[in-house]
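Team,

Forwarding the record for the chain on the shared tracking sheet. I've put the sequence and predicted structure together so nobody has to dig through attachments.
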Amino acid sequence: MNPLLTADASTEPFYAVVGLLCLVVPIVLAVSLLLLRDRRRENKRRRALASGRLPGRETPRQFAQRGTWLLLVVFFTLIFWSFAPTKSHRNRPRPRPTTNTPLLAALIGGSLAAGYALFRTFRLYDRVLKRAEQLVKADDLDGAIATLREAVEVRPTAWRANNLACYLIDKGEWPEAYKYLLEAQGLGLDAALYRNNLSSVLRNLGRPEDSLSVQEPHVHSARATVPEVCNYTLALLDLRRTDAAFEQIVRAETLFRAMSLLPDDQKRLYRALIDLCRSRYEERMGGKKPSPLDEL
């Protein structure tokens, strides 16, 4: 009878280290990719706020596909490696049961990370939003509005209502845009995403007081952006509160000068918004010279 062939017990520390690495590396990689995607979405949102409107939702399908494929490659490699034959020795004791614990932990942790990536993919991806974005890029704004209006009637979501309102803002249809912004708000959309749009719509509907109330008190905080400050300034000018408007123009100029790392296209948008506020202020002041803005 042949003696029992067992794995080399001296490899236990090696397997333990490799198992721990296989547990940590996929999780760190998945978290890093998610943080990178969130940063890209935040940068895109900031560029959108610079233009005074929010574009269609960024779909993370490609990101999730890359991350999922990478995780699957790592996991299948780990599985095949774990079943690969190892150097055998006679009359060696069996490895302790704890030898495979890091490997099992790595498989469980990696599976949870891959499952989370797939969950984010299916939860965030919306074919209707993507189709509407493609129609807008093809200069078919009416088609995008019709697509989203039908989708909101069938299955309303906060992002569908918000994007429909954005496209209606582009057409200058303020009452209907206001209706869908309120619907997006009721469906739980983050206030940071609709606040400036709602304030702009109210101002164009001839309700500057309500426009100011939407922006306050956020506009006075350090997190306020140049578009938000400019929109607030325009509402102040509509109410002929020129002193307060002048203070906000000074603040917008200060914020703009502090943003030296902004992309050129975003700088141009910010500059155009500030210049609009300056010209409206000059009109309210009757074109008097010298103007307080000359010192800025």
